[in-house]
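Hey L., structure's done. Input below.
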Amino acid sequence: MTDASAPVTREYPDNALAQVMFGPHNANLDRIESRLGVALDARGNTISISGTAELAGEAAAVLDSLYDLARRQGHVETADVDSAMRMVGQVPDTAGELVIRTRKRHIAPRTPMQADYIRALDKSHLTFGLGPAGTGKTYMAVAKAVAMMIAGEVDRIILSRPAVEAGERLGFLPGDLKDKVDPYLRPLYDALYDMLPGDQVAKKLLAGEIEVAPLAFMRGRTLANSFIILDEAQNTTTMQMKMFLTRMGEHSRMAVTGDPSQTDLPPGVRSGLADAIDILDGMEGVSFIRFTDRDVVRHDLVTRIVRAYDKADRARRDKAAP
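Output:
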């Protein structure tokens, strides 16, 4: 390794927590070594970091962050290691202002863009979360909505998705209307049950404090004192998007999430999400957060899949270009 400086040493007070941070058979250290290009030598609760001054400093910051995480939650997962490496160099959130607190879990940003997203959800009346699957766009918006309800800042949560199959094919599904549309809304229910105990979710759904409904159910309503989320917004038409955005009432927040590069609309139908981006970008009170494959926080393979598809899409567009 070129330009190596003197090793950086870190000694952690609690040997047991240090072992948690290192991972089984030092797996977390191996991951940091391979990603950051440093050499780590762990002995008990002490670790020596060899590499360039810059990389050794980054590795030390990652280790300090993971030790603090082990102290707070008692375990360190692979995703936590990746998150710590992505967040290195960012201003630490020492006051915990970016942590979204719900009844069942606390959600902290795992990438710099997620940190920007939480800030946008805090300050803007309308926030667009744009980008590929696995970046936490919808999950964090639901968490923010639940946190605001717990704090008494909103009275209701409205979660919606367009059911692009809501025509003929949906009619062939068994059951009543709720049975037919619930499969489209399942990811939103899943996020809710991650944030609140099941009995509280059921109680709030029954009382109408939380509503999970297809986009078509939003027509003609004015939603005040609410946190309103539209998921999979790339599958809205331009008229549906305009209808949704104009439902906002007094003291309400909206989050619109979707991937502009993926749409299930019929050929030739313009996406309402793409239209809204063109019309509203730069408007006061509206924030646009654009995630990339670097913000995917699912399994490593998901990131590689997203990149592979993006590469294939670019190749097809280049081939089709005159």
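Residues 128 and 230 are 10 Å apart (CA to CA). The mean pLDDT is 87.

-- N.
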